[in-house]
Write a structure and sequence with these properties.
Helix content is 41%, strand content 14%. By secondary structure, it is α/β, with parallel strands linked by helices. The strands form three sheets. Strands 6-7-8-9-10-11-12-13-14-15-16-17-18-20-19 form a 15-stranded mixed beta sheet.
Length: 582
């Protein structure tokens, strides 16, 4: 078994190993034994008589307990049905295609139901995806299909149309995620030509495909004919003002659209955006708008403020829009409603200063509603740390996710933010990466160098004893041996003890460790890119592992990466930037 498929950092993910084993077992069964689609459930694994837990590292397996090299596996008497997985493998045999191991794992590991198929990032192409499409055609029922991050072209969407038509399923919502593939504008034509989708399609994500303005008429048709469509994502699709205007023209008061993502497309004119905002304001249900990466002028910001007044926005993503402190402050009042509608706000890389934090802190209705806030990449600096700390100390604050990476907070700012969480019971995820400059880190870690022998009185005494040690006669032998033993012990253990003592006595590191301990509600802390050496990393993980996190603490340390997390929480990494919520 390829253990690299089951690793998170330097550690084995035992649960992933169990999935891999179950899939390998099933693939090796003869066809007649696979006929019912029953696969085993791995209960536990033992190495050297010891049950393997998720915290076991690869080194402890191979070095500390070499044993006989075998892992004992206990298989449950209960078998589980994996109908789609069986259909896929059967179709691979029929079409003389080798099963894609990643697809097999994901079909085995479906979390909710076999009507929700997630096979993203499996290196699927138009040819290799054919067995899966045939299996879905035989399966018939689909509520969600995620084929994102593959290498699929227009031909796959044409075959998908046949899958939907042949299913005969004319009701029930459908989520279709095709983002980050190799689709062109003609792929949308296939959706337009699929009558089954007119009543079923609720979510369409085609972001990250080179659709260009040639897709404008197709998008217009989809918006007009797919009456159940409430979420459309066309981010980073190489479209311009022409397509945005077409989208605006296609919206009417009967539309059920609630979520629209048009970010990272350019050029998009101010007039096209203003016309879009005017149309969105007429929709009864509109809630979330993503404009990330589109530069907003003053008239556009004014129009956006009016949209915020007219709609009850639950999400507004304005990362890298150059809105600036003035524009962000201008948006505070329109977004601040007593009902606390806004829950997601992204103002990353917008040039905000501490002045914005001051105004945000004082807006009680707004801070009592926001759950996810991204202020990363703004020069908040030390001046804004106290204001942020005050915001986090506010009993009305209900933030669960806060991103303040690359904000030039400095070491004192990082410590101050963590200390402010001592009484905060809501924040679960905090990103403080890349806030301490290399020079500041160096000045802090210089104190961790081994104590120089010439300045260490104990080592000086050791040198003196070595020089003066003489054995005059046999009566002094026992004394000499005792002195030699003392010297040997000092030589063997003193350097490590000195280093350890220096780390523990470094006041700055003590403050950082203590602040991590008291931030007891955190489940994910990102301290990457702050230049902490291995000794400090170990010390911080020890602090993270105290209190309520003692039995579930995890870490991912690799180069500049330093993620502290808990077992069972959100993954610290592995989620692509385009798939993150904020």
């Amino acid at each position: 078994m390829d253990l690299s498929l089951c690793r998170v950092g330097d550690k084995l993910d035992i649960e992933q190993m169990k999935v891999e084993l179950a899939c390998l077992y099933y693939l090796q069964l003869p066809r007649e034994k696979r006929s019912r689609g029953l696969v085993p459930v791995i209960q536990h694994m033992k190495y050297g008589g010891r049950i393997l837990e998720s915290i076991e590292t690869l080194n402890s397996l191979r070095d500390n307990e070499p044993g006989n090299g075998r892992v004992e596996v206990s298989v449950s008497a209960v078998m589980v049905t994996k109908h789609v997985m069986k259909l896929y493998i059967d179709c691979c045999e029929e079409l003389s295609e080798s099963p894609n191991s990643e697809v097999v794992r994901k079909l085995y590991n479906l979390d909710v139901s076999e009507d929700e198929i997630v096979v993203s990032d499996c290196q699927l192409r138009d040819v290799s995806v054919a067995p899966l499409l045939k299996a879905l055609q035989l399966h018939k029922t689909l509520a969600l299909l995620d084929l994102s991050h593959n290498l699929l072209g227009n031909g796959t969407v044409e075959k998908l149309k046949q899958v939907f038509i042949s299913s005969g399923q004319s009701y029930g919502g459908l989520v279709l995620n095709l983002h980050s593939n190799r689709l062109g504008p003609a792929a949308l034509f296939q959706i337009c030509e699929c009558p089954v989708l007119y009543a079923r399609l609720e979510v369409l994500n085609i972001s990250g495909n080179c659709l260009t303005d040639a897709c404008a008429s197709y998008l217009s048709t989809i918006l007009r004919t797919c009456k159940a469509l409430y979420s459309l994502d066309i981010e980073n699709c190489s479209i311009t003002s022409r397509t945005i205007q077409k989208v605006a023209d296609s919206l009417d008061s009967d539309s059920v659209l609630t979520h629209l993502c048009i970010g990272r497309n350019h050029p998009v004119s101010g007039n096209a955006l203003i016309n879009l905002f005017l149309k969105l304001a007429t929709l009864n249900r509109f809630q979330e708008l993503n404009l990330n990466g589109i530069k907003l002028s003053k008239p556009v910001v004014d129009s956006l403020c009016q949209l915020a007044k007219d709609c009850c926005l639950s999400g507004l993503l304005l990362g890298n829009t150059n809105i600036g402190t003035e524009g962000a402050i201008q948006l505070i009042k329109p977004l601040s409603k007593e009902t606390g509608e806004l829950v997601r706000l992204d103002l990353s890389f917008c040039g905000l200063t501490s002045d914005y934090i001051v105004r945000l802190r004082d807006e009680a209705p707004l801070i009592s509603g926001i759950l996810e806030l991204n202020l990363g990449g703004n020069p908040i600096m030390k001046e804004g740390c106290m204001e942020l700390a005050s915001l986090l100390n506010n009993p009305l604050c209900c933030l669960r996710i806060l991103v303040i990476c690359k904000c030039e907070l400095g070491f004192a700012g990082v410590v101050g933010i963590l200390q402010a969480l001592s009484k905060n019971c809501s924040l679960e995820e905090l990103n403080l990466s890349e806030n301490i400059s290399p020079d500041e880190t160096k000045s802090l870690t210089d104190n961790l160098e081994l104590i120089d022998e010439t300045s260490n009185p104990l080592l000086n005494a050791l040198d003196t004893n070595e020089n003066e040690l003489e054995v005059a006669d046999s009566e002094d032998e026992e004394v000499a041996e005792a002195e030699a033993t003392k010297i040997s012990g000092l030589e063997d253990g003193h350097i490590y003890a000195s280093q350890k003592k220096t780390i523990l006595e470094c006041q700055s590191m003590q403050e950082l460790s203590a602040s991590i301990k008291i931030a007891g509600n955190l489940k994910l802390l990102d301290l990457s890119g702050n230049g902490f050496p291995a000794e400090i990393t170990e010390m911080l993980f020890s602090a993270w592992s105290s209190g309520d996190r003692a039995d579930v603490a995890q870490r991912h340390v690799d180069g500049n990466t330093l993620h502290l997390s808990v077992r069972g929480g959100n993954k610290c990494c592995g989620v692509k930037s385009c798939c993150r919520k904020i």
